Predict the 3D structure of the following.
Amino acid sequence: MTVSLRLDPEQPSREAIEWAAGIIQQGGLVAFPTETVYGVGADALNAAAVNRIFDAKGRPSDNPLIVHVASRKMLDRLVARVPEKAERLMERFWPGPLTLVLERKADAASAAAAGLPTLAVRMPQNKIALELIRTANTPIAAPSANISGRPSPTRAEHVVSDLSGRIDLILDGGETRIGVESTVLDLTTDPAVVLRPGWITQEELAGVVGAVEAFATIRELMRSPGTRHRHYSPRARVVITETGNVAHIKETCLGSLGAGAVGLICHTPIDIVHHQLRSVVLDNNAESYARSIYDAMRELDSWGAQLIVIEAIAEEGAGTAVMDRIRRAAGEE
């Protein structure tokens, strides 16, 4: 049985945090909020506990996990060295939605690293997450708290829907602030390579460390969580339409209604009224889409949509990360 506890995100209950930390220390699984999405965590130094994450999610065993830390001392237990570029990035962006891929200590967190010589690490910017890690006094490996391949959870209810009965405890801290996963930057190469776009943009990173490239090869993606396997997908098929193209949006929706219910996620008002069409209207910006896109997919899945039509947004700044997730949901590479 999975227990869910509601916590004040600004002043989380000490008793609840200590209970959750005890579960982590005993090899259990705890779901908790971060500023990006909810994660399901285990002691990163306990291989058996980490393997429970893979089992609970149905996650491929070759897909590494992000390890969350609460201090520099904790990071030093995991990585062989911290290059100067990493120092500058941590100073600027930690705690926050930036994951760094660094050289792993040979005897540290091999299960979370999926056997790779590198490790993906970050310090979350969420009081519940940080207090849990500090109290457990161990780095916590935590991918998104969902069934592998499904849209990431931005509310505790999403975690309950996917993982109830598979994990020990859910810490409910309300809706996550950002809503898309962290940027993943590989610092084991020169120049550094963005393996997964996220809320912190390639341009922001380059402003701190100079040249930063986007990934070029599948071999590079092996070092990053959440990239090589299908992710973020609702049960319904997903189709993407151009931003502001009313004619195309209408044509796509109306042309599919005969084959079943259609869900529409858009920012342009569309005057279609049909009992087999349900719309979720968002603001035309990366913040609104990031915070709501996964929730909207899950809502339309629950309603019974066979097809979900998503209107694109501009790929500027964090819009690049949002469109990356939407394309992956649609099965586009």
Q: What stands out?
A: Residues 286-303 form the longest helix (18 residues). The chain has a mean pLDDT of 94. The first strand starts at residue 3 and ends at 6. Residues 246 and 309 are 12 Å apart (CA to CA).
